[in-house]
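Technical appendix A lists one of the benchmark inputs used to test multi-chain prediction within the project. The record comprises four sequence entries:
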Amino acid sequence: MKSSDKHEKIIRAAVKVFAKKGFFSARISDIAKVAKVADGTIYLYFNNKFDILISVFDEEIGKFIAQTKKLVDQEENPRKKLEVFALKHLSMAKENKSLAEIIQMELRQSHKLIKEYRKTIFSEYVDIISAIIRQGQEKNIFRKDIKPGIAKRAYFGALDEMTRLWVLSPKPPYDIKETAKQISSMFLQGINAE
Amino acid sequence: MKSSDKHEKIIRAAVKVFAKKGFFSARISDIAKVAKVADGTIYLYFNNKFDILISVFDEEIGKFIAQTKKLVDQEENPRKKLEVFALKHLSMAKENKSLAEIIQMELRQSHKLIKEYRKTIFSEYVDIISAIIRQGQEKNIFRKDIKPGIAKRAYFGALDEMTRLWVLSPKPPYDIKETAKQISSMFLQGINAE
DNA sequence: GGCCGCTAAATGAATAATCATTCAGATTTT
DNA sequence: AAAATCTGAATGATTATTCATTTAGCGGCC
């Protein structure tokens, strides 16, 4: 068997096990069992347990961010860009529930390395939002008194919290498209009547 | 020494240690050392390590939610209520950084018990928001097509994400009042120019 | 084709370290 | 001098990691 297969198999098993039991409660032997590999084999591909978690993030989140950027770039209108971003974010959570769960739970860990990691990777992601907002402000489409640095976090936070609902509930209580629409609409028009 | 003192001392020490190292990496002996108490003494006041974490939540978060409710009730106008909520939320994070950090990190844990706990306690908190929104809709102040169940999470998520910024950064990069204003304004008016 | 020798990959039992928890005895309070 | 409280060393369970051994893959040779 080619070694790349094993690497892949272990990562996939780890996603499942971490999602189910959480990083600290997951045992290497659990992952080995799911991956159908000996405990020791894991150490041929990863330095330690923590390294597996980081690899999961690196390999899976990277792909996702790239996809999001591409989609957003295809739209012209900043309003539309925000909608597309919301839809992509929520869709990902629905289609890849285990990974979403790990991001929700484990990327919030207070471990120093994870904190640092989170800062870097999330910056790249939420900066997609602030870039859109700046664009919109330049085109006089968005209010100039809104700080992009605050708005990006507010928008991301709103989506992230909806994702948490998906992750914690067995069934999505709201429709994805409907939710993305509501959230982008709230941000664009606000909730004030008239 | 009165026993209530020890209980308090241990809780306070636990808040510090959990915030610094995270629940799983925190050792009982760490907490004991900070509390200036023997390891065994902790077990006279708490059943186990997990029980300490739950007690931290129960005793500290409970107070905070009660305070928030009281403040919100003092306002008449739903718009004003939302502003007050945001300000209280962010102020709490600034004034009680260790606790905010624990809420951010540990309450996201995938441990079954924590998941359940989170559902209960957070529902109580975010339902303050949905209640405000429903009130506003009844008075024709807020759009009727906004679902309170989505809006409450979006609003909470936005604030929660700003809190994360506080927790992860050594210095608050934005002014608390300014941030609360921006977020409530975004939700009320939206970011569209005119 | 079949056999041999070699290397890389894989195995999983044994190791070693970590800590939550306990409890027999010390100390303090009443 | 009981009772209540506290202590911290010892226990025991858990598991990440290691490593001596086995297995599989491959090229050269007859």
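Residues 1, 3, 6, 32, 37-41, 44 of chain A lie near DNA strand C (CB under 10 Å from a C1'). Chain A is about 75% helix and 0% strand. Comparable benchmark entries are summarised in Table A2.
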